[in-house]
Amino acid sequence: MRTAALGTAEWYRHFGTVDAPGSSPCYADWSLHIADDPGLIARIDEWPYNKRQPLLMLAAARFLGAKVSPYPEFRAFLDEHWAEVSRTVLSRATQTNEVGRCATLLPSLAGIAAAEGRPLALIEVGASAGLALFPDRYSYEFDDGAAVTQLDPVASGDGFAASGGRLAGSGELPEPPVLRCRTAGRVPLPDRLPSVVWRAGIDLNPLDVRNSDDVAWLEALIWPEQEFRRERLRRAIAVARQDPPLLVAGDLNEQLLSLAGQAPPDAALVVFHSAVMGYVSGDGRARFRATMQTLARDRGCHWLSNEGETVIIQEDGSVVVPEMDPARLRGNFLLLHNGQPVAITGPHGQSLDWL
Questions:
Q1: How far apart are CA 312 and CA 271, in angstroms?
Q2: CA separation for the pair 74, 66 (Å, rounded)
Q3: Is the N or the C terminus of the chain less surrounded, counting Cβ atoms within 10 Å?
Q4: Burial class (CB within 10 angstroms; exposed 0-12, middle 13-18, buried 19+) of 335
């Protein structure tokens, strides 16, 4: 999400020139046309600022049936369905549950488990449907340009051995998604997936993988041409349905300490988030950092932050990591472990450049 200083047309133009190209030609084209469409911009400006974001509006239209098409056809669809688009935008949020990001978090999670000599307890803030809480139950392919390292969950009669626990129910286990990630630098890839014994998340409006409307919304948030992301989302949902995580509704700053208190004390606690802090005010971020300092002191908690330039650059113009050139982050995320930068990551988990 962009700062309030950016006008709506500029926001859509930025999305069409920086965020969408290379990922969705359709969204890039639509966004650039919207930026030059004063009538539509005026309609969008009737929504609260945080509801004007391009991905939310475009996903709402896709949720309602908009097809990939030239802009005039899309514009006609919006004219015909504007009341429904508006209702969807005002009632939903951009809760993209991108499981691909687990690939960029995995080396850090495995490193924490190895250093602690204990299994993990995970809390994700801004968890959506909680799909990123299953890094131990997905398959991975890390490609450094010379070789591909594959990692898979270890299945047993009771579920996944790597998970450290049993799956709810019985029967054949779903085929996990394969998360593919290009790597650069000395990425500390593990020999096996870490064990996770407890997982929970916080979201203002948690989505339920067993609810068909919530699942349809998650699919609508996938960019049109990225069928591979849609397929791995469906596989991740099948995994999560076997053992739905604990999801708490509420503000992350109000819920985090109490939820952390429920984590098993003999596990290494990790709090993580991806593409979340851009939706939190400067004061809210400061409060969250103070809470993480408290958890680090009292619980030995680890903190993984995987966020973009709108989080690195603060409202007052300062930067969280002064030595990091923001230009290097353009279109990417910065992964920090306990406040220290460790990697530049692709926003959908497609790349991991170890620092």
A1: 18
A2: 7
A3: C
A4: buried
Q: Are 302 and 337 contacting, i.e. CB atoms less than 8 angstroms apart?
A: yes
pLDDT tens per residue, range 92-125: 998 889 999 999 999 999 999 999 999 999 999 9
Structure tokens at 67: 């097809």
Locus of tokens 């005002």: 90
Length of the chain: 355
The CA distance from 30 to 24, in Å, is 10
> In this structure, how many other beta carbons lie within 10 angstroms of the beta carbon of residue 100?
24
Tell me which amino acid residue 77 is.
Answer: F
The token pair that represents 102 in the structure block? 């687990």
> How large is the average pLDDT for residues 15-42?
95
Identify the DSSP state of 319: B
- The pLDDT tens digits for 150-197 are 999 986 444 444 433 334 344 578 899 999 999 999 999 999 999 999
pTM higher than 0.90: no
Tokens of 242: 């076997």
Q: Of the candidates 200, 213, 332, 205, which has an alpha carbon nearest to the alpha carbon of residue 274?
A: 332
Please, which pLDDT band fits residue 317 given cuts at 50, 70 and 90?
A: low
- Residue 215: count of CB within 10 angstroms of its CB: 18
Considering only CA atoms, which of 198, 218, 274 is closest in space to residue 94?
Answer: 218
Distance CA 121, CA 43 (A): 45
**pLDDT recorded at residue 169:** 42
Contact, 280 vs 289, CB < 8 A? no
| CA dist., res. 315 & res. 346, Å (int) | 24
3-class DSSP state of 199: strand
* Per-residue model confidence as pLDDT tens digits over 40-64: 999 999 999 989 999 999 999 999 9
Those residues whose C-beta lies under 8 Å from the C-beta of residue 31, and which sit 6 or more positions away, are 12, 13, 15, 16, 20, 54, 58
